[in-house]
Amino acid sequence: MSAVQQTGTARHSRAGRGPGVWLAAWPLTAVFMLSNAPTPMFVLWQQRIGFGTGTLTVVFASYIGGLLVALPVAGVLSDRYGRRTVLVPAVLSALLACLLYATAGSVAALIAARLLTGLAVGGAVAAGMAAVSDVGGPDRRRQASLAGSVAMGTGLASGPLLAGCAAQLLPAPTVTVFVAEAALLLSALLVIRGLPQVRRDGAGGSWLRLPSVPRPNRRDLLAGLAAYMPGMTGTSFLLALGPSMLADLLGTTNRIVAGGSAFVMFGASTAVQFFVSRWRPHRLLATATGATAAGMLLVILAVRASSIGLLLAAAVLAGIGQGMGQLGGFSLLNARVPGLRLAEANAALSAWGYLFAGILPVGTGYLSDARGIGFSASLLGAVVAGAALVGTGFVVRLGRRG
Asked: What does pTM read for this prediction?
């Protein structure tokens, strides 16, 4: 008897298998493109509106706030009422965020756009990953985990690069970029229409609660978080403050350079997942923590040496750590959590990972205003590296226990 049959029954409102797993993952790519697309243009908004580095990190982290609002609801609703029930409002939130970005003239508008983006990503990561797993079925779980995770990484990588090039080379960049992104989101709605509407009967409890996993899977969630939390924090830190660090180290505000550095980081995150897709989850997680620690130590060296080469190398390692941690965490949950609770489990992993990814960079931003970006970047790099090393030991011990 399957895990779903043990804890509830699944009902499909559409016949047939629907789209393949890679096409089913396209909404994840489209939404995650929006999450990072504003990065190369934050410096432009700073100049146009006028705000400091601390305020910049608050605007950036508002996205995390939207995520933390969405995730406690999205996972439960997706498991109980179907993936499309969550994915359609998520994409509509993203479209509204595009409108706000394109017309933003104040910090409040940017914060609202980031909040809406977080709501969209929260819904997408909880319901979208589960939808890809539904399409893959029990025989293609590994491929479904890879497709969903790669789709997220592809969006994270391509969004800032395309936005950076458009912002540097095209007129009215904020309008151009987000009109193009809106078109991609509309195409994602077409894909969502073709997804099977899986509804799982037997779910109990409140629809508004902290996302969690069944008791037997708590160690799996902790193992995933040991790698995912420092990995997400490291990449969020470099994404939020990378343009400022580049300006400090190179004296450049070129938006192609800013977008390109984010592309390198998340491109590494995406590419490495193809090479390690057959690794066991605990091996993925332990290697991820090591890569994250090494990347953060390189950040410290890059600041001390004022070296763009070391900073790019740090971005590559941070991306590798984030990508492997993401794939390992979602793969472990996908393999062991019953389908009845899968979207909620995905939400739990994301919520805790993004919580720390939002808090620490904000503190670093305000510390940068007071003590300089070199000092604050070095301090955060040391904290994240230490957390990653602690996570390595934790994952290794859990892996030995099976």
From this structure: 0.73
